[in-house]
User: What shape does this take?
Amino acid sequence: MKKFLKNRRLLIILSTFILALIILAGSVSLRSSRETPFFGQRFSNNTIGIAAKVVNWPFEKLNQGIESMHDLLETYQENNYLQQKIDDLAQTKVRNSNLEKENKELKATLDLKASLTDYTLILGSVTSRAPGSWSDIVVIDQGLNSGLKKNMAVMSGAGLVGRVIEVNDTNAKVELITTTNKSASRFAVELKDSEGDYAHGIITGFDTKSGNLLLSQVANSKLIKKGTKVYTSGLAGRSPKGLLVGTVKKTTRDSFGLTDVIQIKPATDLNNFSVVSVVERKVSGD
Assistant: This one.
């Protein structure tokens, strides 16, 4: 009896195993032949997929946010770097432009020194020029310690720019030839007319629109040709003779229409100079 029961148990197990294999094989065959899984499997798969998306969504957003912040930080740093390079380039251009301008002024000063054999030149630089007195006063970095004296003529490049009106130990004030001060001591100048005779006059002002100096009180002004060079005459006793002021641009009438006014193009840019030469006379002038 026991043996029969034992054999029956083995037969049941074997039958169950075979049935399971048949069901598994059928399931695999049926799944292969179906375009979609069974409802239960499909429901399970959909549930797992949705759960995975719900769980992964905040992590994906966080990762995207971190990547965006990293990209933004890199862009910000790159922008700062490029902006610094642009600023450095602009500063370099300005510095090169200033150096080039100073170099031209120094070359002109050397040419001036070679031509003015009767004078000693004291070189200096403009240290201050206030906007409110731009056309009137500049301050230079030479003074009593360098031998400067009041009323010395001051040039920049090859042209006259003004005269010393105040001297301190280490600096001096220069009144420009373009000054609007009515009580300023004006420069006496001379030039040759078309007949070869010398004509004399006084620098009386400055035309801000044209940038030209104004010369009046000239006899026979109609004989003065365009392009004629104008020099200091030394007749006023305050400036040496023979310093270049500029060239004749044109002749106009004064505001009252009574007398001729000769416009002179300055020999140097009176609005933009940084190197100056103070003229000290070595021999007595006229």
